[in-house]
Amino acid sequence: MVVNPKIFKAYDIRGIYPDELDETQAKEIGRALVDHLGCREVAVGRDMRASSDSLFKALADGIAGQGASVVDLGMVSTDGLYFAVGKYGYQAGVMITASHNPKEYNGLKICQKDAVPLSGDDGLSQMRDLVNQGKLKSVSVKGEIFPRDIGRDYIEHCLSFIDRARIKPFKIAVDAGNGMAGLTVPPLFERLPGELVPMYFQPDGNFPNHPASPIEPENIADLQTRVLSDKCDFGAAFDGDADRMFLVDEKGQTLGGSDITALVAKMLLKKKPGSTVLYNAICSRCVPETVEKMGGKAIRSRVGHALIKPLMRKENAIFGGEHSGHFYFRDFWFADSGLIAFLVCWQLISEESKPLSQLVAEIDPYYRISETNSRVEDIPAKLDELEGIYSNKGAALDRLDGLTISYRDWWANIRPSNTEPLLRLNVEANSQVLLDDKSSELLKIIRS
To answer: What are the residue numbers of the active site?
Structure first.
């Protein structure tokens, strides 16, 4: 048996089902996980995709066949899986999901004890090699498979991040995108004084309303319309496995991940001033400015959970945020949770007694483009070319993650894709005119 090397990505295992990822491969990956980590128990959760049940059975068969017990969490969010591994002390966890990807995809997000993620260089490639080099051990005694319901414990832990007495009874539209938030959000509103306006809460891996990827503007349009038509105080949208979250203000305007990162940091630093907050190299300047204004310490990081989580542990950071809508919490085993970010923002809006649009306007005066991709065959040479041009123009430059070009009134980051010959451009400026000018200038160089 040989597993497809193409499905082993930088942060997870993912591919089209069943052409790239199927039950046979899932079983072998389960065996390899047990051998690589030497674990005796593995918690396994799954999302609502049509192939998730079948992949679960194969994965569980592989894990149990290699001598480890399988804790079947059933249908849960990805942060629910992280919670189970952290809270109950399991040695490993697997979430069967393709997150925000289209319906024909599925995948595996894998972590070890304390919800520490396995990545392409640290765990996933070693598991691949165990299978493809025929090094899996033979085991005579099989492990057991047994269920566990984490629902109540998970919700109570998420609620521990807020003061329920300070929560105001807002009217909130929530778009679950037919994903796992349809199961995790209702229990919150049973315990909090808000009015829920639910959208697409029935879990359905065919995504009949829109793809469960709220970072794309077209997938959040229904929520924007609903917030306005129902006169909601604000709205929230989750991706398919509910580990990412985006907000819509009372005017129907979408908040980016940077604004949410700044808002969550502001609330947490009100409770614990002086704490450290991480933000990735793509986040707006409004994030470190907000952190420092609140008396916190802001540390810039490379993009990606496999890089942010260990740095958070090293720095004992209370919180970390990404432009992509991933939000990490120290008291959640340094893992990401869209639900906790949603709750923290709810409390901040409650305490500030201001509409969400005003809260954002007070911390974020900047203009920025949506991340723009360009196909580039020789990425290192192009980055060197850009560095040479802007070095001669007096820019501050760094190579923390790709190339960041900084001036007083604008900055840009040009970063390679992990999987394709693409350069990803992000630009932020103090005015729309400057933003348009510098974005056009950079794209002309990148695409020449």
So the answer is: 99
Amino acid at 251: K
| Contact indicator for 423, 372 with CB cutoff of 8 Å | no
Q: How far apart are CA 132 and CA 177, in angstroms?
A: 37
Q: What is the pTM of this model?
A: 0.96
- Non-local (6+) Cβ contacts of 287 within 8 A are 258, 261, 262, 265, 277, 279, 298, 321
DSSP tag of 104 = T
| Phi, psi (degrees; rounded to nearest 5) at 210 | -170, 160
Q: From start to end of 53-91, where are the E strands?
A: 69-75
Alpha-carbon distance values, 436 to 111, 278, 431 (Å):
42, 29, 9
Residue 198: closest CA among 221, 218, 177, 228: 177
Residue-wise DSSP of 212-235: S-TTSGGGSHHHHHHHHHTT-SEE
Distance CA 117, CA 407 (A): 35
What are the pLDDT digits (tens) for 367-405?
Answer: 999 999 999 999 999 999 999 999 999 999 999 999 999
Give the closest residue to 81 by CA, choosing from 61, 58, 107.
107
Supply the DSSP string of 29-43, one letter for each residue. Answer: HHHHHHHHHT-SEEE
Tallying the residues shown for the chain, one arrives at: 448
Please state, for a pLDDT cut of 90, what percent of the chain lies above it. 96
pLDDT, tens digit (0-9, with 9 covering 90-100), for 404-414? 999 999 999 99
Higher pLDDT, 7 or 418: 7
Give the SS3 label for residue 15.
Answer: strand
